[in-house]
Design brief:
InterPro entries: Arf-Rho-GAP_ANK-PH_domain, PH-like_dom_sf, PH_domain, RA_dom, Rho_GTPase_activation_prot, RhoGAP_ARAP, RhoGAP_dom, Ubiquitin-like_domsf. This is ArfGAP with RhoGAP domain, ankyrin repeat and PH domain 1. GO terms for molecular function: GTPase activator activity; phosphatidylinositol-3,4,5-trisphosphate binding. The structure is a single chain. The chain is of the alpha+beta class and 649 residues long. 32% of the residues lie in helices and 25% in strands. The strands form four sheets. Strands 4, 5, 6, 7, 8, 9, 10, 11, 12 and 13 form a ten-stranded antiparallel β-sheet that branches. It is globular, with a radius of gyration of 29 Å. The termini are far apart.
Length: 649
């Protein structure tokens, strides 16, 4: 061990599962020893962290930390490899091949076993966490920069990792090494530099900052004149860039808090300051060379195929966004040429003195569907959804609609002007005021979307904007104001919940049409479902390691009702009792609206209009829940009542 004031040179030995250290090679009695069963973690330190180039730390199950160093890198690697091999079990020996920064034993729970913790062996390697979990023979890899959520529950020392398909809870059995794991995983899950691949990423390999900015502009900025051409406030742009750089995963862009031009300039600055550039330093000049007209599409496709995975996914997402922006140029004044002038120098990081870079961007947008081989129908649906968003923003003026009170009949109808900013709570108050109905305590009046043909109904969230709902209603659907009789029980249930999640066995069926003849097939099967703050996941059984299906919770609409005729493909989830149905429904609501299920003031009054929540519009998946137990028992196919249906997007 090295000649440093912080270190004492010792003679070390590995023998029969023991790591011992002596005063010298002449000494027979060790100064100390560690059994392999006592070692729970080994951490490889960065050079000079402890004033010495080659060091590693050993953590024991008795909460002791041992620091060792060697004179050279080769001996350091040999000691790390040998010690690790001594305490890592044979079923996890494959972890030894990795150049890990930290390796060891941790207790964990996953979404399929929340009752008691199990033991797993983990290795932190760069931005990935490799693991051998109990009862699993295969190595798992968690891409930490792609986590949908990463948090620490300080009160019970639990590290929560939410990835696509499951949630992993890592428990702090020993405070000393758990702190090291938390710091290491948090650092690995963050941005590590200026290049695209070093950012926190979405599941589609797009930097989170790009995904969030594009989504915000699509929701709030497509009608903003001069979008991307106008400058934002420099101090606010710098603050946003820093927030994304610090932890993009936890940045939430909201209409009431952020300005369109600040967000658009944040996106441009990110690309301008990207270390390697979107087109990469090596390939940028090739992109800028003028291709022959007849070979233009194939040349761009070839160059696209050569880009790194993250760059390719990001370019596709950005060009798709710019294509949509210029499709609404009559509103935002940003046509193809204007966007190219702005984004050419930005993406190629040039001075913009000529139009070479702009020409490339203009041609990519103009030939977007051919270069990226886009599904025309999918693009049409996307543009239709954007049209709904724009109309909902109020640019298309107010709409007159018919709203019914308690039931659909002529004497109960009211004709109401619906401005783009009107919320469901405001519409409800409007109807009650017109009919001079006094709202008493615990009268949970709500606005409902009702479909007679589908025999479903959905209580609108009190902050949900009404206008987008009107655009999506079919001819057999209408809006109805009535009391939500289940709301008090829902609020009582939610107040008693410790954490915002639910899991359990539910009946599942998927129906498909046979050769288009309208004959439905499929029977109900037991499936295990987990609903958390991010997704609804379905597993074949409780012990399954991977989900069969997954739906993002925020993209779902929750409907109540019984459906007799369903157009395939359709997914059903059936609850056995009204109580169970209400619990699932309650959890959906609190997850989708971040706990804001009902206004704090139970007596609704027409005050300053509340700002709308972030609501997605267009072709979204549907989830109906409800049904009577008598109808369930009497149904020809058991459990066809009480359906919870997910419609495929």
């Amino acid at each position: 061990l090295g000649p440093s004031s912080k270190f004492s040179r010792r003679w070390c030995m590995l023998n029969d599962g023991n790591f011992s250290y002596y005063e010298s090679d002449k000494t027979s009695t060790p100064n100390g020893a560690l059994k392999s069963t006592e070692i729970v973690c080994l951490s490889v330190n960065t050079p000079e962290r402890h004033g010495y180039d080659h060091t590693f730390e050993l953590y024991s199950d008795s909460e002791r930390l041992y620091l060792f160093g060697t004179d050279d890198q080769d001996s350091h690697k040999e000691w790390v490899k040998s010690i690790t091999k001594m305490f890592i079990p044979s079923n996890a020996e494959a972890l030894l091949r990795l150049s890990f920064e930290r390796i060891g034993r941790l207790k964990y729970k996953d979404g399929l076993n929340l009752q008691s913790p199990r033991v797993g062996w983990f290795a932190l390697v760069g931005s990935s966490l490799h693991a051998y979990l109990e009862d699993s023979e295969e190595e798992e890899e968690i891409h930490l920069r792609k986590l949908q959520e990463l948090s620490i529950q300080q009160e019970n020392e639990v590290l929560v990792l939410v990835e696509r398909g499951r949630t992993l809870y890592i428990e702090g059995e020993r405070k000393l090494d758990f702190q090291g794991w938390c710091v290491g995983i948090q650092k690995a899950a963050g941005s590590a530099g200026d290049s695209l691949s070093q950012q926190q990423l979405t599941e589609a390999d797009i930097p989170v900052i790009v995904d969030r900015c594009i989504d915000y502009i699509t929701q709030c900025g497509l009608t903003s004149e001069g979008i991307y051409r106008k400058s934002g406030v420099n101090s606010r742009v710098a603050a946003l860039c820093e927030a994304f750089r610090r932890d993009a995963r936890n940045v939430r862009l909201k209409e009431e808090e952020h300005q369109v031009d600040d967000v658009s300039n944040t996106l441009k600055r990110f690309f301008r300051e990207s270390g390697e550039g979107l087109f990469t330093i090596q390939a940028a000049s090739t992109w800028l060379s003028t291709p022959e007209e007849s070979k233009k599409i194939s040349q761009y496709q070839l160059l696209l195929s050569r880009l790194p995975r993250v760059n390719k996914a990001t370019l596709r997402a950005l060009v798709n966004h710019l294509y949509c922006v210029q499709r609404f140029a009559e509103l935002n004044q940003m046509n193809l040429h204007n966007l190219a002038i702005v984004f050419g120098p930005t993406l190629f990081q040039t001075d913009g003195k000529d139009y070479t870079a702009g020409r490339v961007v203009e041609e990519l947008i103009e030939h977007y569907t051919d270069v990226f081989e886009v599904d025309e129908q999918q693009l049409k649906r996307q543009l239709d959804e954007i049209t709904v968003i724009i109309k909902a923003s109020g640019s298309a003026g107010d709409f007159i609609c018919t709203v019914y009170l308690e039931e659909k009949k002529e004497t109960a109808e009211q004709h109401v002007k619906i401005p783009g900013s009107m919320t469901a709570a405001e519409l409800t108050c409007e109807i009650l005021d017109r009919r001079k109905i006094q709202v008493r305590e615990k009268d949970y009046w709500s606005c409902w979307e009702v479909s007679q043909k589908e025999e479903t109904e959905r209580p609108l969230h009190h902050l949900e904007r009404v206008l987008p709902i009107l655009h999506s209603l079919g001819t057999d659907s209408h809006l109805l104001v009535k009391k939500n009789l289940a709301m008090e029980a829902i609020l009582v249930y939610l107040a008693s919940k410790v954490d915002v999640s639910k899991h359990g066995m539910v009946k599942f069926r998927e129906e498909r049409s046979i050769l288009g003849l309208g004959l439905n097939t499929g029977s109900f099967h037991d499936r295990y479902f987990i609903l958390n703050t991010v997704s609804l996941r379905m597993y074949k059984e409780v012990r399954s390691n991977r989900s069969e299906r997954e739906w993002q919770v925020k993209n779902l609409r929750v409907y109540l009702g019984i459906k007799k005729k369903l157009r395939p493909p359709t997914w059903y989830l059936c609850c056995d009792t009204q109580t169970e149905m209400r619990e699932w429904f309650s959890t959906f609501l609190t997850v989708q609206y971040d706990g804001n299920v009902w206004p704090v003031d139970a007596v609704q009054t027409r005050v300053t209009r509340a700002l709308p929540v972030d609501t997605r519009h267009g072709n979204v998946a549907l989830i109906p829940l409800r049904g009577s137990e008598n109808e369930m028992r009497n149904s020809v196919a058991a459990f066809t009542a009480d359906p919870l249906e997910l419609r495929q997007i």
